[in-house]
């Protein structure tokens, strides 16, 4: 015959098991939410190591506050990210980093600074979408994001040169994105304004290594 004491012990044991299960579920949910948040923030271009540091210390604060802290935090120079002094004649091949995005600007079109900035942004965003669709580049894209999403902007002297560079990139099977402007402001319609490549030093140097840094 089951006594009241035995019944209470069984109920307590069952309650403890339920408590542990609930805690495990909550921990798993928090872990999933944290992973999702970290991925969202690194996709925005923040360093993964910095994101993890701030998210771990933030607790249950809104995402907007974490982003604000990321924007106002200066992690300092990394030994893995070179500081490039622009001497006016430097070639980007002198800058040794891992995977990078190289953006080529057609300076022969004599675009304003603002126009160049917008065309470089078009090239970078367009290439990013191309890379995301390439499953064979998934690991490279992840490491690139984690290492600061490094980009280098170089110049092509004219349309003929940027076309030649683009053709060489195709020959070497390097992921790329070309920008042809609609011609609503400063340049003629369909002007070849910018070009972006993604790859390692070894892959990119034969194609863009001799182009000068944009200044």
Automatic annotation (TrEMBL):
Keywords: Hydrolase. GO terms for molecular function: peptidyl-tRNA hydrolase activity. Residues 22-32 have a biased composition (Basic and acidic residues). The keyword Hydrolase applies. Residues 1-32 are annotated as: Disordered. Its EC number is 3.1.1.29. Residues 1-21 have a biased composition (Polar residues). InterPro entries: Pep_tRNA_hydro_II_dom_sf (IPR023476), PTH2 (IPR002833). It catalyses: an N-acyl-L-alpha-aminoacyl-tRNA + H2O = an N-acyl-L-amino acid + a tRNA + H(+). SUPFAM superfamilies: Peptidyl-tRNA hydrolase II. The keyword Manganese does not apply. One of its GO terms (cellular component) is cytosol. PANTHER family: AMINOACYL-TRNA HYDROLASE (PTHR12649:SF29), PEPTIDYL-TRNA HYDROLASE 2 (PTHR12649). Belongs to the PTH2 family. This is peptidyl-tRNA hydrolase. It comes from Schizaphis graminum (Green bug aphid). The gene is C24G6.8.
